[in-house]
Write a structure and sequence with these properties.
By secondary structure, the chain is mainly α. The protein has eight helices and no strands. Helix 2 runs antiparallel to helix 7 and helix 6 packs parallel to helix 8. It is globular.
Length: 195
Amino acid sequence: VIVFCFVGITLLLSGSRSGMIAFALQILLVGLMKLTHFSLRKITILCLTLLVLCYTFPLFEQGSLYENRGEVWTTALVAGFTHPLFGTGFGNTEVFLHQATLKLHNHLQGYYVDSSHNIFLDWFVEGGIVGLGLFASLLFQTFSRFVTAKQERNLVLLLGLTAGLSFNPVSIVLLIAFWWLIGQGMVNDGKKVSL
């Protein structure tokens, strides 16, 4: 309880809305696992559904023109649809985001934006529908394997990282943890393994 309080206070003081969403989803996942008799599959589906619903939050965002997720996401969609099947190529996000800001005549024109602020949109821009489909399939398989193997800790961590990467530019630190968890799901093939 003390750790939850410290994390909650830290998130409130930092103002990290994506961190608050991730933490709330993790608390919900753990709480439902411990306090209810629902299956782990149903609880996971509920939490992932809530995460997807949280994707609507940037549409109602007010205030800062820079860092406005709704505007960045719209720009990323336009950039992704320039090469929708196979994408623009990995490492080309910033170029195509800039071109999309010029097409849209939005507030991001004068800013350097090198990320979609959403890992799924980054994959769509860089890898197109094919790349996004492969990425989403891999993530879905990992969640499924963690549920099947009842790897609750890995499930909670993957949910939190997915939520965090859904609203922020990716960082190497987060990507290392994210891909390590996906590797754990793929390598262990659903078997429960203790570290």
